[in-house]
Amino acid sequence: MLYGRQEELSFLNNSYQSIGGQLLVLYGRRRTGKTATLLQFAKGKPCAYFSCSESTSRSQLAALATLLQQKKDASNHQALLLRRPKEFTDWGEALTQIPEIPGKGKKILILDEFTNLLKSSPDFLHVLRDIWETRLQYDNLMIILCTSSVQLAEEELLYPYSPLGECATGTLKMDALDHYGSAAFFSSWAPGERLTALSLLGGIPYYLSSFDSDKPLEYNIKTRLLGKDSPLFREPDHLLHSQLREISIYNAILEALALGNCKLSQIYEKTGIGKSKLTVYLKNLSDLGLVGRELPIHDGLREPVYVPHGIYRLKDPFFRFWYANVFPHRSLLEQGEADLIYDKILQPKLAEYSSDAFLHACRDYLMRCNKSGKLPFAYTEIGGFWNKEEAFPIMATDAKNTSFLVGECFASERLLTLPYLNKTIAKFKAKKKGHQAYFYYIFSLSGFAEEVRQPALRQGIELISGAQVFSAF
After folding, report:
1. What is the value of pTM for the model shown?
2. Buried b (16+ CB within 10 A) or exposed e, 41-56
């Protein structure tokens, strides 16, 4: 079942219903569910789905010719077995056959991982552009080019003056699912279990679908994450080897980040990699969607040049978990010691992981409220704020830095009580300076003691429980 891709499906269907030819590029890192989304979109439509392989141009042309012939002969089993398809001489001829896909309505050709095709046919995009501009854009058809090469897509293929950038009618990037899309994988679990699972797996559909929601959470962690025979046990290895070289260096950087070394100087001290080279390696990991550089939200009280230096974080929760709990203990796990690693190392950390996941769930909540106009103002940026004196896990601001939403998150299993509220009120008041408008939010995973509500109301503080975050949409 496909979860949480309603916006992507809506985009594809709106493009499909548009008049004239459509040429779309869909891209995103591996395991985000691109193929599943495309196949769901294509159901019931006249479509030819072609998975591009790393083979010669002639071999791929022959495979595409066979596919199209199979589409035409789908109702004639004898012809399907006996008829030899006419091979295409080049990609120009192949593309002209898209209107021949049988069925009523706009005809669709999906070229999945089309960057494999470019390796053997580097002139493909030029051929596509020329035939698109002279013919295909006027036909009732749709071509979807899909790739997992995010850096290649953003920095080369979609550049305005590239062949593809000149003729593409739309682009769609597939990112990780937000909290709501991810939680749908475990709808039968209690909120606390869902939160723990998401804190370890993040929002990548392939990782989420690896868990069995009919089994207990602890069983899934031990068998699907720590089990030496599980697909996720070797997933980071497979991804890095398919995308990068110098794997040992990237392993060292990712482990340093997973263990909490967020500043460039800390990563340098942990790995011994020169800072100039380190920034290059971090950029490559960023291009893969694994690492991100965070800056504090600009609070409008100082010039941007004085904003403290950013920090680096592992954006992917699964990679953070894996490099903190699997990578350092692979020898024991290879010997089948999943119970030992879970009981002595991982289990005591689960509350910390859940706390971080709750913070991101709260930000997702605010993002959805912002889209639907349910906040006091429409913010243009959201993140965290920190300097030498203070820090807030949530801050959002408008384009002019005149209105601010400041939030605190409490992921305790206990109700938030009055002493915690008073500390937070004092912290909020210390932040308020100048003539800016401030709006305060407190999120509490377990909810709030009754004694908290009236004081919070008097101070104009919005209280949001974990139950509200999880069930609001």
Report:
1. 0.89
2. bbeebbbbbbebeeee
Please, are residues 253 and 285 in contact by the beta-carbon 8 Å criterion? yes
The two structure tokens encoding residue 249: 């260096």
3-state secondary structure 424-466: HHHHHHHHCCCCCEEEEEEEECCCECHHHHHHHHHCCEEEEEH
Query: What's the rounded Cα separation, in Å, for the pair 460 and 377?
Result: 15
H helical segments located in 102-204: 115-120, 124-134, 150-152, 163-167, 179-183, 191-201
- Angstrom distance (rounded) from CA 122 to CA 225: 40
Task: Extract the tokens encoding 259.
Answer: 């263990």
Q: Give residue for tokens 């998401």.
A: 198
Whether the pLDDT of residue 86 is over 80: the answer is no
Residues 266-298 pLDDT 10s? 999 999 999 889 999 999 999 888 999 998 887
Q: How far apart are CA 139 and CA 105, in angstroms?
A: 11
Q: Which domains, and CATH codes, for the chain?
A: 6-173 (3.40.50.300), 179-347 (1.10.10.10), 355-471 (3.40.1350.10)
State the CB neighbour count (10 A cutoff) for residue 104. Answer: 7
Instruction: Specify the pairing of strand 381-386 against strand 141-147.
Output: unpaired
Contact, 38 vs 143, CB < 8 A?
Answer: no
More confident residue, 465 or 305: 465
Measure the CA–CA gap between 449 and 402, rounded to whole angstroms.
Answer: 33
DSSP state of 283: H
- Count the alpha carbons within 13 Å of 162 in the hemisphere toward its beta carbon: 15
299-336 pLDDT, tens per residue? 655 544 444 468 999 999 999 999 999 999 999 999 99
Instruction: Yes or no: say if 451 and 418 are a contact pair by the CB < 8 Å rule.
Output: yes
Q: Decide if 349 contacts 356 (C-beta within 8 A).
A: no
pLDDT of 18-71, one tens digit each? Answer: 999 999 999 999 999 999 999 999 999 999 999 999 999 999 999 999 999 888
According to DSSP, the β-strands at 391-397 and 381-386 are antiparallel
Query: What would the pLDDT profile of 130-151 be if each residue is shown by its tens digit?
Result: 999 999 999 999 999 999 999 8
Which residues touch 208 (CB under 8 Å, ≥6 apart)? 3, 177, 182, 185, 186, 197, 201
